């Protein structure tokens, strides 16, 4: 019961932060104040909050779950590549977004695209694609909230009520506090993650009698030794993953967040310390996920290891349903929870509950970003603000937060999570494929609105194609693959246990490269009649 | 010149990330418990932070501050 009380105390605290931010802004706040915290965030809140905005439930739970099944490769796939690509993107792209926002009053990337390429409705198309890729995250967060509250209270709070409580709390502090409230909550979340990871590592290590013996035992077993190397994956697969972090800067909630800093110099600390934050959060998560393979004394982990062993054993009579059931049983998303349950004292389990709740509530930034995009890119662009005034624009944003939260809750209660898991899995690839838009807008004079449209439509079609393959073709047994599309004997698209592949690479690679190619070719073909005028280009390329 | 050095530094780090040389090795266990492949990437992450510090010193877009 104590973990449940700590989680409710955490929910009360973030609600209070929303009220605090609301009072600080006053009732006459402008749109810029509500959506961008008045472009006034200081360096520490900017660093912690930007990092928290990027960290979803996946960082804490998914990373350890992935490491439990795949081993140490998880860190190289997702953490160290992000530690290089994301800070570089913040330095090169984020600082320019900040400057353009400050200079021209932009609050969203679409506003910048419309101005840069002198277009209107093409900006609306980009808005639709960005929004469609963002919504599944919000729905997943409602589901996560319901599941976690039900688990922490041992079912005393049912799934539907847990989802409702989490949705209401997130909606309330975003509704009241806007960006200021969201940024403060994100900073608190990051601090919790940083504290929890380190403490959990020491406590679990001590509970297991030290990690040295656990590692030696893993190396001695042929079943677990490969988890300590990368021999089970190909270097091409590893290389593919380095494209994923490109999605970060293209996510609207991240690019919008870049405009909240009081000064561009605040990026300096963020760029330098971002890799260290990655290390402090991901290394404990991944290491604990790997070492959980040696924690068979914990009954819940033992049952996962049994399920994995059954999956690995050749069995011709096993049906697809049996395999799917075993795969669910073997999944490690809750492995860090189980480790702490098994080895940590109650106070740490309580802190863990709050950290997990913080992780699943990370949808706040996405909800606020959607609201900002709707009010700026649709309501204001189509003359809403001109007709009804700035106060109505802020009110529309708040109503939109309420409506999005309500719709997400209703959908989360009616549709299976697996559908949204697929959607979020490939949204990363989709946003990575939208990165060429930002790069072309900021650094290539000859880019045109038609190039941007081609790149956006390609991204939408590619995400839909991959999601369809994932949904309609069941995963084959490990070690095998199904050819989806081939030219002669040359398999182009394949479906394997780990997902869909194009020429052995993750889909994000061809998606991003073709998106860039579309931007280049279509812009070159249309620049004679669609290149923006000289005054526009001077605004972007004066230096 | 500074821009090209920065691009080269980032490209070098990108290549160093593809560390095929520790692909099939778990030993030595650094500090007695950290597989060498994981230690390498942890160290790589720290190196990224150092490289970012250098980039901020060398190619900071100071014109944006005006």
Write a short abstract of this structure.
The complex is a heterodimer of chains A (543) and B (66). With 543 residues, chain A is mostly helical.
In CATH, the architecture of chain A is Up-down Bundle
Structural class assignment of chain A: mainly alpha
What's the shape of chain B? elongated
Helix content of chain A: over 70%
Strand elements of chain A, count: 3
| Spatial gap, N to C terminus of chain A | 60 Å
* CATH first level of chain A: Mainly Alpha
Q: Give the helices and strands of chain B as they follow along the chain.
A: HH
User: Beta-strand level of the residues of chain A, as a percent range?
Assistant: under 5%
Termini separation of chain B: 23 Å
Q: What is the count of β-strands of chain B?
A: 0
Mean pLDDT of chain A: 87
Radius of gyration of chain A: 23 Å
Count of discrete structural domains of chain A: 1
Q: Strand arrangement, largest sheet of chain A?
A: 1-2-3
Main sheet specs of chain B? none
Summarize model confidence as the mean pLDDT of chain B. Answer: 92
Return residue spans of chain B where pLDDT drops below 50 for at least 5 consecutive residues. none
Give the oligomeric state. heterodimer
General shape of chain A:
globular
Question: What would CATH call the homologous superfamily of chain A?
Answer: Sodium/glucose cotransporter
